């Protein structure tokens, strides 16, 4: 079989023919290390050039994605979507940023000033609210990107980085911050259950804190609290506020 060129691989990422990470037959998310390596080499092999978008001017190594009308994507100025990212038909992009290698599936809305980092994987019918920060990952090659599965609602100013995985239809309240080492505490039962780097499907999550001892004393450290499950009767398009009200939480 003829080896594919790096240009072919970037084009395939741009068209959604391949992904940086996808679910295997066993149900596990597997990283396409070759694709990540090609993205890294793309930065090294391409010089920065002037890019014109109407009155806006950029100077970058990666061109902007184009032809949104024919792709069936609504894009509100001045959203910036880099070539080599895939955005499916039916996606709505408010002024936001989507980096190379990212995958945004159909029916999703990326709201104002939200960022979808390099190689992040965002499923169908997801809502990324205003100011959400989805971290990117290129190195190390085997590292998983941030994964947000279908039907999730991510509240304003949430930050998800370091390969965290958000299960299907989860609801995250405003300002939830989850890193690869953050404590995630399910406090919906009689005893807490701890997770690291993973939010189970249909979880309703709010910011929290726990007490940690330091040499200088006891201090509060941020964590994420799972306070319950999204009700089966709740429509996937429900507002964040309604999902939180179901658990007697308001912000």
Protein traits:
mainly beta; 6-stranded parallel sheet; 34% strand; 4 helices; UDP N-Acetylglucosamine Acyltransferase, domain 1
Question: Any overview of this molecule?
Answer:
By secondary structure, this protein is mostly beta strands. It has one domain (about 5-180): Hexapeptide repeat proteins (UDP N-Acetylglucosamine Acyltransferase, domain 1), CATH 2.160.10.10. The chain contains four helices and 26 strands. It is globular. The mean pLDDT is about 90.
Kindly summarize this structure in a few lines.
With 251 residues, the chain is mainly β.
Please write out the topology:
Layout: H1 6-15, E1 21-23, E2 29-31, H2 33-45, E3 49-53, E4 56-60, H3 68-71, E5 74-75, E6 80-81, E7 86-87, E8 92-93, E9 97-98, E10 103-104, E11 109-110, E12 115-116, E13 121-122, E14 127-128, E15 133-134, E16 147-148, E17 153-154, E18 159-160, E19 165-166, E20 171-172, E21 177-178, E22 183-186, E23 193-196, E24 198-199, E25 203-214, E26 217-229, H4 240-245
Parallel strand pairs: 5-8, 6-9, 7-10, 8-11, 9-12, 10-13, 11-14, 12-15, 13-16, 14-17, 15-18, 16-19, 17-20, 18-21, 19-24, 20-25, 22-26
Antiparallel strand pairs: 1-2, 3-4, 22-23, 25-26
What number of structural domains do the residues give? Answer: 1
Give me the CATH architecture, please. 3 Solenoid
- Ranges where pLDDT stays below 50 over 5 or more residues in a row are none
What is the count of helical runs? Answer: 4
Roughly what is the average pLDDT, rounded to an integer? Answer: 91
CATH H-level homologous superfamily name: Hexapeptide repeat proteins
Total count of strands: 26
CATH class reads Mainly Beta
Please tell me what the overall shape is: globular
């Amino acid at each position: 079989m003829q080896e594919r060129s790096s240009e072919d691989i970037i084009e395939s990422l741009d068209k959604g023919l391949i992904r940086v990470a996808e679910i295997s037959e066993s149900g596990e998310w597997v990283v396409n290390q070759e694709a990540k390596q090609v993205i890294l080499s793309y930065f090294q092999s391409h010089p920065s050039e002037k890019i014109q978008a109407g009155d806006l001017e950029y100077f970058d190594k990666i061109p902007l994605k184009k032809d949104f009308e024919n792709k069936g994507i609504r894009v509100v100025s001045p959203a910036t979507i880099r070539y080599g990212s895939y955005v499916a038909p039916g996606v709505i992009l408010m002024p936001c940023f989507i980096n190379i290698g990212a995958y945004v599936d159909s029916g999703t809305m990326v709201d104002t000033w939200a960022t979808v980092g390099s190689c992040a994987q965002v499923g169908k019918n997801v809502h990324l609210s205003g100011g959400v920060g989805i971290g990117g990952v290129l190195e190390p090659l085997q590292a998983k990107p941030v994964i947000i599965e279908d039907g999730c609602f991510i509240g304003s100013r949430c930050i998800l980085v370091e390969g965290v995985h958000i299960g299907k239809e989860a609801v995250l309240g405003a300002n939830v911050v989850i890193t690869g080492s953050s404590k995630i505490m399910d406090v919906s039962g009689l005893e807490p259950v701890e997770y690291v780097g993973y939010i189970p499907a249909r979880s309703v999550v709010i910011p929290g804190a726990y007490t940690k001892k330091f040499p200088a004393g006891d201090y509060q450290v941020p964590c994420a609290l799972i306070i319950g499950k999204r009700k089966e009767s709740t429509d996937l398009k429900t507002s964040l506020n309604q999902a939180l009200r179901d658990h007697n939480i308001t912000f």
